[in-house]
Design goal:
- The chain contains nine helices and five strands; from the N terminus they run E-H-E-H-E-H-E-H-E-H-H-H-H-H.
- The mean pLDDT is about 90.
- It is an alpha/beta fold and about 200 residues long.
- Strand 4, helix 4 and strand 5 form a beta-alpha-beta unit.
Length: about 200
């Protein structure tokens, strides 16, 4: 059985080395690129089963790299990684055709299941035009994706606060804090604490 070929794109050699060690070379042939321009050139000239793409790249960022790769070979799954995941980044990646995107803090729990699903041809859920943040938060929680789940609850809380529903907003912020703590992101939880009770 031939090894699955992964193009790993990240400007930090230490992170690439850590990911290669984590994924192992028994099941995968991992080819490295340190920037978007080189990655697109390699992607154009070679066949890969999946791409793991860092968002914060020097020069050409993850968005532009993803866009060019999708123009060249739209059927190859691309999994994004980012140090600071936001709803804007997540939704933009999904809308541009990424298979999924993960916060780097969660990749050691989440990357292999996502990679396996992508390689097996499983379809990812399409993002809605106007997502229901609470529903998405619950779906992500059920997948064990606590940080992303907390992110959506925070956004839902901000929406509720804007509508003048402070009690509901604070309830969502509290649950967001719990989920950030569960994800080991205490600094993020502390940011949300400052939002509670403020009109």
């Amino acid at each position: 059985m031939s090894l699955k070929k992964i193009l790993l794109v990240d400007d930090k050699a230490l992170l690439r080395d850590a990911l290669i060690e984590y994924l192992g070379t028994g099941d995968y042939e991992i080819i490295e690129a340190e920037d978007g321009e080189k990655a697109v050139s390699m992607f154009r000239d070679n066949d890969y089963d999946v791409v793991i793409l860092d968002h914060n790249l020097p020069g050409m960022d993850g968005y532009k790299t993803l866009k060019l790769m999708k123009q060249l070979k739209p059927d190859i799954p691309i999994i994004g990684l980012t140090g600071e995941l936001s709803i804007e980044i997540r939704e933009k990646y999904l809308s541009m055709g990424a298979y999924d995107i993960h916060a780097k803090s969660a990749i050691y729990e989440k990357l292999i299941p996502t990679l396996t699903a992508a390689l097996q041809g499983e379809k990812r859920g399409e993002s809605d035009e106007k997502p229901d943040y609470i529903q998405l938060a619950e779906k992500l929680k059920n997948e064990g994706r606590w940080e992303e789940s907390a992110l959506y609850l925070k956004e839902a809380g901000i929406e509720q606060r804007a509508r003048g529903k402070l009690e509901k907003a604070n309830e969502l912020f509290e649950e967001s804090i719990n989920r950030y703590i569960r994800a080991g992101r205490r600094s993020k939880a502390a940011e949300i604490e400052k939002m509670i009770g403020n009109g």
